[in-house]
Amino acid sequence: MTENPPRSGTSTGSGPTTTPNWTAPGASGAAAGEAGDADRLAALGYRQELRRSLGVLGNISMGFAVVSPVVGLYAVSQVGLSVAGGAWVWALPVCLLGQMLVVAVYSELASQWPLAGGAYQWSRRLAGPTFAWLTGWMWQFAVMFANTTVAYLASPWFFALFGLTPTPARLVLVSVLFMLFCTLVNAYGINLLRWFVSLGIAAELIASVLVGFALLLFFRVHGFGLLTDLLDAPATAGVSTGAAFLAVVAVGGWAFIGFDACVSTAEETRDAGRQVPRAMWWALLSVGVVVILNAVSVALAHPDPAAVVAGQDLDPVTTAVTTAFGDWSAKPFVVVVLISFTACLMASQGGAARGLYSLARDGVFPFSAQVRRVNRHKAPIGGLVAATVVSAAALPLGLEATAMGSLITFGTAATFLPFFLLSVAALAARLRGTWRPSGEVSYGRAGTVVNALAVLWTGLEVVNICWPRAILAPPGAPWYQVWAALLGVGLVGLAGLGYLLVRRPQRLMRDGAFSERPGDELAPAVH
Question: Which residues contact 61 (CB under 8 A, 6 or more apart)?
Fold first, then answer.
């Protein structure tokens, strides 16, 4: 296997660089022309290969679908209620505020360097090729394995829709078919993907906003005092109140990741330097408000929250909805949830494909010549196939439920680790004076303070998620599931380090045809 130099040019070299504030010709007002976007991309070292057709609403939809209030709430509500009772909802604002710090850092980076594969592209400009490659490697596997879990978690809803009884083998088979369907949609390009994702968002609005307000206003069973009642959940789990809250914060962070999908489609968004930061903020804040609304609504409308604490109700969201609206609502609700999961997987799968495309066009990913290919629909088909293969290869873990739980835990930890690494790289570059944000978005001196707080938040959350806790694993789970986050991050990190030492992809990144002196204008390589 040989690494192939990219046809579209390489990015900056190993030294930290600062790109001057760049304005595309005629790029005044709310949007830049398509030619101006292509020129800006060329100035960053790449030619336009993907179809640039998204506006800010289309970009927001990608981030909204991946964060997905429905998917996020289903992933965390049962664990939250069982560990901290009704008081678990207070962990969500903490996680939202923490992620707002990350988005602030991402906004400055995306504004200056609006490129697909943000974590990899940005960190190589801030901290050099070795650090950047490992960050990109970890982020890619986090997203690809997250797609595995979304496909697997969606499959039971298919059986619920038709009243069928799932078995482990059937769940895995339906998950594979579900993933292949999403791959087919992605292969037809960004416009078809945007249409399907928009349908999913419409379903989200029905399932999240309307149902949430209805539960809160018309079907509330408990008083607001429930939101401060632990329901003896920590004592039942055998932990202190503080330990229970930290565990819920570790799980709750999963509900607010995915906004970086807006970055993944930066090269398909018009006036990306201005619009992608806006889209990230809108995606995170809108989802954050909806998730908190529905978490409160479900807790207050649930007929028996104590049953969740006791482990007698493993699906409190569905219980609250069907109890409030009646049994007739079960099927329509299943359809809405299934559509939401589909949109989430499609958008996340598209983000993974574009991240691989970004690595492969620099020749620094295995089988780069194949992975970097773009089809006639201007979709990154090579990255899409590679992402699907990796995600589907992990689905047989679903034959053993505890193994899939380990994958979910790893995915959360592996997502927060790149957040932390990138925040550290940005803060270090600021303090060294080698990076001063020069895009459309810059927070000035306040940006350094926000960046430092982002480092603190993401660092604590990485430790918090990786901390082995029996209370977050199913009863009787084997030791490796309790340690799943740390083991998973370690194994993927070691695999990346091994590839780094053997294939030395960082060498290709250092050999780029760009100036490496801080402040020099970047010019595209000539091939």
Answer: 194, 197, 198, 201, 347
The stretch 110-124 carries a mean pLDDT of 93
Radius of gyration (C-alpha) of the chain in whole angstroms: 22
pLDDT digits (tens, 9 = 90+) for 318-364: 899 999 998 888 888 888 889 989 999 999 999 999 999 999 999 99
> Which residues sit opposite 269 in a β-bridge?
54
Dist. CA 280–CA 267, nearest whole Å: 15
Read off the amino acid at residue 68.
Answer: S
The closest alpha carbon to 130, from 400, 349, 425, belongs to 425
List, for residues 472-506, the tens digit of each pLDDT value. 887 777 888 889 889 989 999 999 999 999 988 88
d(C-alpha 265, C-alpha 252), whole Å = 26
Report the alpha-carbon distance of residue 499 to residue 138 in Å, rounded: 13
User: Reduced to 3 states, what is the DSSP secondary structure of residue 269?
Assistant: strand
Residue 229: the pLDDT is 96
Q: Across-strand partners of 7?
A: none
Q: Which amino acid is at 404?
A: M
Q: What Å distances lie between residue 200 and 152, 155, 176, 188, CA to CA?
A: 18, 16, 20, 18
Q: 421 and 135 in contact (C-beta within 8 Å)?
A: yes
| Helices 381-393 and 330-360, axial angle in degrees (round to 10) | 120
Residue with tokens 């459309």: 440
Alpha helix positions (H), 302-329: 305-309, 316-325
